[in-house]
Here is the input.
Amino acid sequence: MRRTRTLTGIGIAAAALLALTGCNSGSPTSPGGGTGGGGEGEEEGAWFEVAEDVQLEGSPTFDAIQERDKVIVGVKEDQPGLGYLDVTTNERTGFDIDIARWIAASLGYDEDRIEFKPIASANREQAIVNGDIDYYVGTYSINDKRKEQIDFAGPYFITGQGLLVAKDAPEADKLEDFNGKKVCSATGSTPIQNIKANFPEIDTQEYDLYSACVQDLIDGKVDAVTTDQAILIGYAAQYPDDVKVTGGLFTEERYGVGLKKGDDALRAHINDLFTEGGDIWQAIFDKNLGDSGIEVEQPEVDAY
Here is the structure.
């Protein structure tokens, strides 16, 4: 069932979090702040619970997780509001990070038994194929080319390609406005591939990290940064005096959880989690990506 939502605030929507609990039994977990047990977790508002006695037959990924007694998750750490690491406090925050925590909790693993591993966009499929990570949650767009090597659970969020420009730059309504100009994005990302394939008159600059593109934009070395609008909103909130989001959406990007190909049991488990956990999904969303003014839907999963 689709649920239409409006985001209402970057930061914690505390009232929406109170009294939330998951459908599994176990200790309550609060994304972005470790785990709580008993009364303390209930007082602060548990987001979801760490499941107990989980059985997931036929999942080689889950078997590997159980053998090492730890979940290894591939993430981004340079995307404010989505996947971000504060190098001063060593705290990880963001919508994708909390989605990854929710999945781990559903498998029976709390914050203390999650290893977050940063993986650049260009290296995601190989990390999954090699078994370097158990799953990947990091603005990972589902497409047919990637599905030749891996599988996806979800989508858990739908956005689209957008543009970030300097604060004093004129508004731009279409990608053609940047013909003859320099646009930056992450190597291997869907947006940069779209520009190269369909807008050859645009000069492109690529880095492993979106944050490098944003710094070039602030320094006047590029004219725009392009990626999914959800990512750009986070940067606009981080640097409100320097940059802004312009124009509309130029594509549709469906974020999924990247998994080892053929692990149908884990994919079905995560899809069921998303389908049944609408209130938790909403609380995670409000906390991390509120105040954007963007109307979104919690999408139906594609149970292929």
